[in-house]
Amino acid sequence: xxxxxxxxxxxxxxGSVALAARSKGLAREIVGVDRDPGTLRQAKALGxxxxxxxxxxxxxxxxxxxxxxxxxxxxxxxxEALAPVWSTQAFYTDVGSTKxxxxxxxxxxxxxxxxxxxxxxxxxxxxLSGVEAALGDLFExxxxxxxxxxxxxxxMLERVRGFWQALGAEVHDMSVTHHDHVLAATSHLPHxxxxxxxxxxxxxxxxxxxxxxxxGGFKDFTRIASxxxxxxxxICLANAAExxxxxxxxxxxxxxxxxxxxGGDRSAIxxxxxxxxxxxxxxxxxxxxxS
Amino acid sequence: xxxxxxxxxxxxxxGSVALAARSKGLAREIVGVDRDPGTLRQAKALGxxxxxxxxxxxxxxxxxxxxxxxxxxxxxxxxEALAPVWSTQAFYTDVGSTKxxxxxxxxxxxxxxxxxxxxxxxxxxxxLSGVEAALGDLFExxxxxxxxxxxxxxxMLERVRGFWQALGAEVHDMSVTHHDHVLAATSHLPHxxxxxxxxxxxxxxxxxxxxxxxxGGFKDFTRIASxxxxxxxxICLANAAExxxxxxxxxxxxxxxxxxxxGGDRSAIxxxxxxxxxxxxxxxxxxxxxS
Lengths: 291, 291
Known about the structure:
homodimer; alpha/beta; 11 helices
């Protein structure tokens, strides 16, 4: 059990870490750090944190576990705030959806990756944001990727692994670059595509009022375009190279499908759709394992 | 009340028409037509139809209302089967997701659009298919588009409107070409994009096993890629010109976004995402009206 768990950034994910740690009894005291005092009040009212501070340096005082749960664009500033008060005894982990940029930020601030910072990415989220959307079971049976680096202390790695497992997550290890490559495909590209489609159709709706003739499938398809725009701007910039490469491939995919359609070859189109359908079935079979 | 309602094609939509007509007491007798005797048995067992036939000519005997609910690719063959037994007293309607091809097929078979055939498209569906997925309330408070043509008899138009309204639908009128233009955007393009994305990532999964690291958002986003491949091949071919034009625009949209990303202009990316998010909110506000 931790004496003092500090969560920096008490939004959807940070708040959910707090609620989960609370309900699993993982920490004697939970401290929240957020620049917004209203968020800290709300987190206290929800029972997520015991006490709140507006600066990371205050919040981490005597903490033996620290979770950085700010948007990925803010991580470097958090490292800068933590550097003067960095403890070699505590473990540090984060929740960023991109990992190369987090590791680079740490290397930039500390000169090299601190041995007790273990980057993490819980594959869990909601299209809602803010501590009011936090759930104590958000990580339950969800996959979580740890991306240790050569500098990572093995005991710290195991402590962080144990922490996330205790929150209910199924923990996998992966290299930093492989993480960003995989997540560009499974998460970042789909978000960009959903945003782009909704953007295109939104302009069409202004002219033609098409949205009133959209069905439930459209609602599901575009749900992720309701994700937090600020957070996703950071994620896209942090993983821009991987996302751009995949975007080019996807443009090619659409272009090829357009040719199939213009060619009017029904059996080729049917085959294409059937392949996609069976790929999704394969995804569902795996997804069901943990959800 | 109808004496005899005949439903040609007893799948998800045809079966739902039957169940809804039954529960609303719209017909003394409901006849199903399907080439598959197993489907007819199942439809009878579900209480959707009273009697089943394997040919349209048998099924429409003495029917005063006929709903053509086969996949859009089969509509011309249905018209050909109905031509020798066409009644001028009954109303005919269909449920096709594309309308230009249905009207063309009717013109081809009958020389001109029959005055008592009123094309319809209920904006309702599920990613499941088959009569076993049919729901008696599938059309309840859902929009339904009628695309009458100059040849359409006004009294028949009103009878068909009344029929669909009695099934619970909110009926709108639209021209044939405007329907296909609007639905290409709200339904056909999203389906093609979901199929194409799932197709691309499916191949990536074969190599890199990425699907196990996909989250709930991916599940929603790709749900429509589990739609019936056969039906969607027909829809895409029937509305190929509109879909291809939109695909080209969407490729351009992705290309432009790729430039934004490469340029690294955070405020432009944020603005782009925020616009998409507010467009989706506008969609949800309208969608909530009827769902």
